[in-house]
Design brief:
It is built from 3 helices and 6 strands. With about 130 residues, it is an alpha+beta fold.
């Protein structure tokens, strides 16, 4: 009924109603994985990382794969979920057991909130 209040408002009510406020989105936590261009061969298929990562994130329930960007500076693989702090451990385990092979210089930014929130950088690929 919030729409009804907005349509029939006299303008005297407070425009902000608690029930109208969006619920916090638990998927605001993110772990974008950055691969620098100088360490990414032109013929390197990001699917070598994306496919096993997407499958493991879905199976574990830890998060989701959300695509990638590829530019002249390098590539970024986007992941998000409810527990970004746990994702680096998963990434390291997958690299150790051979399911993922990160190019040198690959890093992950562990962001525990919406864009602009505090974050930390974790190294995934050996330099």
């Amino acid at each position: 009924m919030a729409w009804c209040r907005r349509v029939f408002s006299t303008g005297k009510e407070d425009a902000t109603h608690e029930e109208d406020a969006p619920a916090p989105d638990p998927t605001e936590q993110a772990v974008p994985i950055s691969i620098p261009a100088e360490n990414l061969p032109a013929d390197f298929g990001l699917d070598l990382i994306e496919d096993p990562l997407a499958e493991e994130l879905a199976t574990s329930g830890l998060g989701e794969y959300d695509g990638h960007d590829r530019g002249h500076d390098g590539s970024v693989i986007y992941t998000y979920g409810q527990n970004a702090a746990a994702m680096p451990s998963l990434l390291h385990v997958m690299a150790e057991d051979g399911r993922l092979d990160f190019p040198p210089g690959t890093t992950a930014e562990v962001r525990l909130g919406p864009p602009g929130a505090e974050s930390r950088i974790v190294t995934l690929g050996q330099k």
